[in-house]
Amino acid sequence: MNPETELFISNVEQYILNPIIGLMFVVAVVVFIYGVVEFILGAYNEDRKTAGKKHMIWGIIGMFIMVSAYGIIALIDNTLKGIS
Predict the structure, then answer these.
(1) Is residue 1, in this structure, part of any structural domain at all?
(2) Structurally, how many domains does the chain consist of?
(3) Phi-psi region of 46 (alpha: psi -120 to 50; beta: other; left: phi over 0)
(4) Residue 8, Cβ density class (10 Å: 0-12 exposed, 13-18 middle, ≥19 buried)
(5) In a domain, 30, yes or no
């Protein structure tokens, strides 16, 4: 592969994709923690407990998606490096 192309792909990964994935992972963790707090504080209110459970589930789903995205990007990166 062309060295300029490798440098471009490396820069896109390092300066654009990884920070976005990291930010979205932090958002998912915050949603999860918000759900835990909402669940605990709404212990006697069934609606707040239900909302807390939903936030925890969506936080876990978000974290899973971000870890998967990072893994897929690493797999593609390693595959492209193996071709050259």
Answers:
(1) no
(2) 1
(3) alpha
(4) exposed
(5) yes
Exposure of 73 by Cβ count < 10 A (0-12 exposed, 13-18 middle, 19+ buried)? middle
All residue ranges of the chain with pLDDT < 50 are none
Please indicate, yes or no, if residue 10 is contained in any of the structural domains.
no
- Structural domain that includes position 50: 18-83
Helix (H, G, I), strand (E, B) or coil at 12: helix
From CA 30, how far away is CA 61, in angstroms rounded?
A: 13
Cα 83 to Cα 76: distance, rounded to the nearest angstrom: 11
pTM: 0.86
Instruction: State the chain's mean pLDDT as an integer.
Output: 92
Q: At 1, is the secondary structure helix, strand, or coil?
A: coil
φ/ψ of residue 55, rounded to 5: -65, -40
Would 35 be classed as within a structural domain?
yes
